[in-house]
Amino acid sequence: MAAMARVSSGLAYPERFYAAAAYAGFDGSPDSSTKGVSSKFSNDGALLLYALYQQATVGPCKIPKPRSWSPVEQGKWTSWNGLGNMASTEAMRLFVKILEEEDPGWYSRASNFVSEPAVQVEKNNDTIAEPVTENGNVLPETKTIPAENGNLSEPQDKDVVSEGFGTVGVYDQWVAPPISGPRPKARYEHGAAVIDDKMYIFGGNHNGRYLSDLQALDLRSWTWSKVEVKTAGEASQVQVAPFAGHSLIPWEGNKLISVGGHTKDPSETMQVKVFDLPARTWSTLKTYGKPPLSRGGHSVTLAGTSLVIFGGQDANRSLLNDLHILDLETMTWDEMGTLGVPPSPRSDHAAAVHAERYLLIFGGGSHATCFNDLHVLDLQTMEWSRPTQQGEIPSPRAGHAGVTVGENWFITGGGNNKSGVSETVVLNMSTLGWSIVTTVQGRVPLASEGLSLVLCSYNGEDILVSFGGYNGRYSNEVNVLKPSHKSTLQSKMMQTPVPDSVSAVQNATNATRDLESETVTGQEGNIREISVDNIESEPMVSKVEETSERLLAALKAEKEELESSLSKEKLQTLQLKQDLTDAEARNTDLYKELQSVRGQLAADQSRCFKLEVDVAELKQKLQTLESLKKELELLQRQKAASEQALNEKRRQSSGGVWGWIAGTPPDQQDDA
């Protein structure tokens, strides 16, 4: 399959501009703007390059419009004047850009400079990279021959590569550096972090199996080595389990923190492991507070001295959108309550912190779909918002990786349930404007899910380093991108409300469209004479006015949209106020009813107390009656006994008299 390559200048500005100007024939002499140019460029291109050169070296056009009828002088003045107040640095960058569009291979033919390849390869076992055709021109490149195992072998032009990515450099293109040492096992969903010019890779997923190895890539020699971990000996040391979908964070200059991740035997809560680089031991970080649920595919972002954890997927494959913060000073977990509408539950998204205050969440996926929404959390007010994105909004994706360079957030890779995402994009976090840095072609590791992306410094310049990923094949390849200032400025230019440098260049180019070339050539190689149809600046002015009108119309449309949104918000606020009033009225009625019920309850309690008193008195009287009844029974028994004794005496008395009368002896009477 075809290979992608591009040769570009590696010089920094302004040296890069002066090299391009010297190649184009602008050497600073009075007639340098007309010497040796027509043989290389079209009339429009030559005039535009002249205008940009003047803008970069002299500044805005201050000279009066020439009175001569020379069409060349008229065209030069019109082109230069059309650039307005464009900054010198921007004119330099646009000069190089226009030169590359006119002559893509200029740098390889420039004297006293060495070209350097930027190779992006779609490999099989017997393919050699082919030249790349851009704008109909074939770009020269250094050939790269894939090895049999699918890994890139070293480029044939080893001297160029050995100079590194700092002295020559390739801007805004992914490059496969010359890697040595035993390569790690191919993987995705691993963790990556940079400490002391080394990129550390921990864990990941290979063929459905979780990994637990720790690998290091020396970013100066581009050599892989495995970090030998000491066996756990002390109580604080642990044998770390294989993980995937976790995050790796550098800490205190010599430690790596692994947060969360999927594992074979998940715990109930999120585990935080720490690797001590000097001691080469793993330990479990002792934390306080309530830790989050165990999960993977979440984001972990360092904000000051705190780790901000968002979303992910738990062990039961349930998607989450909760927010937790781990304070690394107190080692305390906090589950944060937020205002506004949070992002929907998701995993495999990207997160970044801007200005130590704003947490940005982009993309991610659910079980059925991928997202390209952007959410912002103010970490001071803890309120979510969903701002309007500007520029070329990226397509939905999940499993992508991101890293910040200043106020720019670079994002690469990811997938959308159909294929890998091929473009590398950058978001200016101040203006929220997107732009595309570069695009790869074919099923290459950079267009895959679960890759890692880190930022490091190489020869004093920032470079992005990607590793691994999965797009149907597991990868263990390393790719490098050096972002140019142009990439940083593009996202800034997206929101300029007045005709910016690009439109100014277009205006200058449009001015040259009114000029028709004549066929006057000479051995000196001067620019051909140009006849004038209309040398006045009305076309340029009309185009500027037309551009202004379009911008004004766009601003009016945006204003109307904002006013409509504001009206909707006001209506919603009024509705909420009415609902609040109704709720307060219902609350008042319920409170009155509660007070009435409380009064009735108090009265019932009083009656109940009186009844209890009466019952107590009746019980006391009943006890008294029982006592009287007993006394009465006793008296009745005593009375009966007394009466019986009295009757007995009476009988005895009566029997004695009659016995005496009857002559009964007293002894017989007693016996009877």
TrEMBL record:
Residue segments, region Disordered: 138-158, 641-672
Molecular functions (GO terms): fatty-acyl-CoA binding
Any one Gene Ontology BP term: lipid transport
Gene3D superfamilies noted in UniProt: 1.20.80.10, Kelch-type beta propeller (2.120.10.80)
InterPro entries with a match to the protein in the record: ACBP4-6_C, Acyl-CoA-binding_protein, Acyl-CoA-binding_sf, FERM/acyl-CoA-bd_prot_sf, Kelch-typ_b-propeller, Kelch_1
Domain ACB: residue ranges: 13-108
Keywords from the named record: Kelch repeat, Lipid-binding, Repeat
UniProt entry tagged with the keyword Cell membrane: no
GO cellular component terms given for this protein: cytosol
Similarity comment: family membership: Belongs to the ACBP family.
Protein name: Acyl-coa-binding domain-containing protein 4
